[in-house]
Amino acid sequence: MAQVLPALDGDSVPEGLDKRDLLELYRRMVLFRVFDERAAVYHRQGRIGTYALFWNHEAIQVGASYALRDADWMFPSYRESAIGLVRGLPPATVLQWWRGHPSGWWNPADWNLASICVPIATHVPHAAGLAWGKKLKGEDAVAMVFFGDGATSEGAFHEGVNLVAVMQVPLVLVCNNNQWAISTPITAQTHAEQLVDKAAGYGIPGVRVDGLDVLAVHAAAREAVERARGGGGPTFIEAVHYRAAPHATADDPRLYIDLERMEQERERECVGRFERYLRRLGVLGDEAVEQTRGAAEEAMRAAIAAAEAEPAPDPELVFRHAYADPPPNLRDG
Ligand SMILES: Cc1ncc(C[n+]2csc(CCOP(=O)(O)OP(=O)(O)O)c2C)c(N)n1
Ligand SMILES: [Mg+2]
Fold first, then answer.
1. Measured between alpha carbons, how far is 187 from 180 in angstroms, rounded to an integer?
2. Smallest CA separation from ligand 1 atom 12, residue
3. I need a labelling partner for 331 at 20 to 30 A (CA). Which of 32, 46, 96, 318 fits?
């Protein structure tokens, strides 16, 4: 039976975290929120291509990744494009990725951060393989892979989860259930009552959390990471919310989404909700809120300036790693 964590909406500091942790979680969430808002504007100015918004997905991304050490690996989908920011990856690098500029590529081994995966679920077996390798080498690092509700219908997802279950691989599977795969609703995606029920079919623990509650997501992730690191194998986490923004900048959800539900979801958006909790606790006041937001905005201003300052890439780069033996028209051209 899947475990369901209660929302941590009270007014006490949860076990295992201190006030510094809470403020760091808040700082990261605000940084992610500002990144997303600025990236959307940057797109509207025609300076980046289609961009996958992660507005209101910050609690999942920040809460889950906060359970990791730097030696642990993260495998993001396009929805978690900026997850490397928690490791100090420059925001300019992520913006450049969305511009299709080579300075947006990084060596995964430099950050223990895989490339952003656009094909749905193909990174689940990649994460499974890397985490299995860590286990075979006797290293205690774990991996965390992020994917959506739609990804759970893909063959790559099933192959990956089955493998990590059978081999008891230290992988944490974080399913961002925003209840939509572009315009396909979750009800057309699965006949299961809840996605977390799938964990039982693989014989692994599953936990369902409110995806807008950073503390609940973090508690689930911390337990899963500890289990994985201790040799207890994989865990499936289903973080539930309802997508309150377009799928991407090229999408118009008004054509298919429940607008009233979207409005309700925006009212309990995760950054403001966490901020109110911190204010109740007395660890955050107006000055710190302003300062945190100001620092994030400054980081994004600098990132946009850095991205703009980058010279245009050489078009021939497209072919550089494409051929061992370039065809004559490319070789001589
Ligand atoms: C293998 C593959 N098939 C189809 C697509 C087109 N596609 C892009 S995003 C998307 C929806 C994925 O939904 P979900 O897994 O719920 O993630 P979300 O976008 O909601 O975060 C699809 C089908 C793709 N990128 N890759
Ligand atoms: Mg989805």
1. 9
2. 181
3. 96
| Whole-number Å distance between alpha carbons of 333 and 321 | 16
- Please tell me the least confidently modeled range out of 32-36, 108-112, 322-326: 322-326
Helix (H, G, I), strand (E, B) or coil at 332: coil
Bridge partners (DSSP) of residue 188 are: none
CA of 293 to the centre of ligand 2 (A): 28
Rounded mean pLDDT of the chain? 95
Whether 206 and 5 have beta carbons less than 8 Å apart is answered as no
pLDDT tens profile 3-15: 666 555 667 788 8
Active-site residue, selected from the candidate residues 28, 126, 247, 273: 247
Q: Mutate which of 51, 57, 116, 120 to test ligand 1's pocket (most atoms within 8 Å of Cβ)? A: 120
Instruction: Single out the catalytic residue among 33, 99, 241, 243.
Output: 243
- Asked whether 61 and 54 are in contact (CB, 8 A), the reply is yes
Cβ-defined contacts of 325-331 (< 8 Å, 24+): none
3-state secondary structure of 181: strand
Q: How many Å lie between the centroid of ligand 2 and the Cα of residue 182? A: 7
* 73 DSSP 8-state letter: E
Q: Which of 182, 183, 265 to mutate to test the pocket of ligand 1 (most atoms within 8 A of CB)?
A: 182
pTM of the predicted model, to two decimals?
Answer: 0.96
> 25: exposed, middle or buried (C-beta count within 10 Å: 0-12, 13-18, 19+)?
buried
Q: pLDDT (tens digit, 9 = 90+) per residue, 106-130? A: 999 999 999 999 999 999 999 999 9
